[in-house]
Write a structure and sequence with these properties.
The protein has 16 helices and 30 strands. Strand 14 and strand 15 form a beta hairpin. Helix 1 packs across helix 12, helix 2 packs antiparallel against helix 6 and helix 2 packs across helix 12. By secondary structure, it is of the alpha+beta class. The structure holds one RNA strand.
RNA sequence: CGGGGCAUGGCGCAGUCUGGUAGCGCAUCUGCUUUGGGAGCAGAGGGUCGGCGGUUCGAAUCCGUCUGCCCCGACCA
């Protein structure tokens, strides 16, 4: 591509409403333009990247034996009524009516449609297993779209659905998809991790997410330094402390703590460690009005774990100040486990404390020297907290570390939820009708583009991994308009590189070199070759790798070798 | 949905408090000079100041209303 024929609208200034670096750089590089909240135009430069990601995903899906098809983005409500999700799915589902007042939705996912296809098309176990996939625009009406295409409402997704005669076949199909995902993310050139994940309301037993590691990631993941254990922090189990609870030493005392509501304020006020304090959260119960959850002061509640406790309402709802006032006669900020009449769960770590500090269930008062059994009834023990850096791994090997990740893929063993609800059946070898076991496998194609930038950028701009770079190499001729030799040399190199199948960008604009360098760095082209009279005198081009700080003079006939070697590495 | 904020040329902003008919930087266009890290000079184009209504001799500015967008809220015990 000649840049003189490619409108490249780069911005020197950062648009004010872009918060994360990928969003800023995608706007500055002219890859995307916002159309409305959560809706983006993919400009030619950005679309090239999107297509490259899509291409790798498609190739590996096909290699794994999946069959590509295309389902409508708009789906009739009837199918969603059948699965029960028309009612279950909240306002994230964009619903609409056609001119005959029939209800439709813009598909956020396609389990219903694919199940409908399979029940109509397949009738024998001989046709299983099968895996269908599509790469298609999805819409989810996010509460708060943000971070550009990272959390957009409309986005490009690869979704695949497999159908199996039995669970063993499902596990095999899942394993094949998992391997395909590993190949995909390897090929994309990203640092990533597959982690165990919550299968949530969708059901099924096994589910893994693929995360691109980046400090700005919205998810926290925990992984062990002792073995391959890795899990979303939502799921990572916190093991109970190995040491027994120490004996009580202090007496119970009530102290005045006017206006001291948070653990941070309490530790400053009393000069105690957060680890010696306990916080008591009240959540709504499904039978009793409220349920108390007790955590060590330095720990965070894991809402997913709390939701799974008997007696806790789903979804988890924190009690508000009014409910707390009615039940305890005090405000939030002064709650403690002593003398509570509602069901109480305590995290293992909180339960292992002696002589701890907690709220007194009276305004502006806390208790010190509190001990379980002596002062407060022994609560039910549970794992309630998020794991923290250094916790022992639940795998029994090593300690946990916490990293941040961007979820770019999610694979599930679904089971028969949809095939049963929608009565999708085939005959098995005994002539009996069975509901196939299903797996589903998603990849956020457009999100991968943003995630790649989050992981690969510097203060000058994007640094594309070569497999998804919009162009692999940029040629920067110096003094293009005036120097015939530069034009000849650059033109020749451009043609030769293209003949070798490379994506080449020739910056033939009549601009000063500084502008061209800055643009090339901003849009993140991995390889740069500068062609100038100065170098041509010596029979050399100047080569620079995007990640490098230094130039390298290479002989004219070394270019192909250089780029070949660089692309291989 | 609740709280806060913003809306002025393609982008980033000033002007609003204190009403007098719109300005700066970047970008764009023309000419000349310049050509190894976002050039210089000279000139030019582009804005119903988000919409509607009101107050006023006069509104970007004051009042009301609507719309759009952004941020925070889901860990407070």
């Amino acid at each position: 591509m000649r840049l003189s024929a490619f409108p490249l609208n780069t911005l020197r200034e950062t648009p004010s409403d872009a918060e994360v670096v990928s969003h800023q750089l995608m706007l500055r590089a002219g890859m995307i333009r916002r159309l409305a909240s959560g809706l983006y135009n993919w400009m030619p430069l950005g679309f090239r990247v999107l297509k490259k990601v899509e291409h790798i995903v498609r190739e590996e899906m096909e290699r794994a034996g999946a069959l590509e098809l295309l389902m409508p983005a708009v789906q009739p409500s009837e199918l969603w009524q059948e699965s029960g999700r028309w009612a279950e799915y909240g306002p994230e589902l964009l619903r609409m009516k056609d001119r005959h007042q029939r209800e439709f939705c813009f598909g956020p996912t396609h389990e219903e449609v694919i199940t409908d296809i399979v029940r109509k098309e397949l009738s024998s176990y001989r046709q299983l297993p099968v895996n269908y996939f599509q790469i298609q625009t999805k819409f989810r009406d996010e509460i708060r779209p943000r971070f550009g295409v990272m959390r957009a409402r409309e986005f490009l997704m690869k979704d695949a659905y497999s159908f199996h005669l039995d669970e063993e076949s499902l596990r095999e199909g899942y394993r094949i998809m998992r391997n395909a995902y590993v190949r995909i993310f390897d090929r994309l050139g990203l640092e990533y991790r597959p982690v165990s994940a919550d299968s949530g309301a969708i059901g099924g037993s096994v589910s893994e997410e693929f995360h691109v590691l980046a400090d700005s990631g919205e998810d926290a993941i925990a992984f062990s330094d002792g073995d391959g254990y890795a899990a979303n922090i939502e799921l990572a189990e916190a093991l109970p402390p190995s040491s027994a609870r120490p004996a009580a030493q202090q007496k119970l005392a009530e102290i005045e703590t006017p206006g001291i509501r948070s653990i941070a304020e309490l530790t400053a006020f009393l000069s105690v460690e957060a680890e010696q304090c306990v916080k008591t959260l009240l959540v709504e119960g499904d039978e009793s009005a409220l349920v108390a959850l007790v955590l060590r002061g330095d720990h965070e509640l894991n809402p997913l774990k709390a939701e799974k406790l008997d007696g806790v309402a789903v979804p988890l709802r924190m009690a508000d100040a009014g409910q707390i006032g009615d039940a305890l006669g005090c405000e939030p900020g002064f709650i403690g486990p002593v003398g509570l009449s509602c069901p109480v769960y305590a995290d293992h770590s909180a339960l292992a404390l002696a002589d701890f500090v907690c709220g007194a269930n009276r305004a502006d008062c806390h208790l010190t020297g509190v001990n379980w059994e002596r002062d407060a009834d022994l609560p039910l023990a549970a794992d309630l907290r998020n794991v923290v850096e250094g916790d022992p791994s639940p795998s029994g090997q090593g300690n946990l570390h916490i990293a941040r990740g961007i979820e770019v893929g999610h694979i599930f063993q679904l089971g028969t939820k949809y095939s049963a609800a929608m009565d999708c059946a085939v005959l098995d070898e005994n002539g009996r009708s069975i509901h196939p076991f299903m797996g589903c496998y998603g990849i956020g194609v457009s999100r991968i583009v943003a995630a790649a930038i989050e992981q690969n950028h510097d203060d000058k701009g994007i640094i594309w991994p070569q497999p998804i770079a919009p162009f692999e190499v940029v040629l920067v001729p110096i003094n293009w308009t005036k120097s015939q030799r530069v034009r000849d040399a650059a033109g020749k190199l451009y043609t030769e590189l293209r003949e070798r199948g490379m994506d080449v960008l020739l910056d033939d604009r009549d601009l000063r070199p500084g502008v061209k360098f800055a643009d090339a760095e901003l849009i993140g082209i991995p390889h740069r070759i500068v062609i100038g009279d100065r170098g041509l005198d010596a029979g050399k081009f100047e080569y620079r790798y995007r990640r490098s700080e230094e130039n390298e003079d290479i002989a004219v006939d070394e270019v192909f070798e250089k780029l070949g070697a660089a692309s291989a590495g």
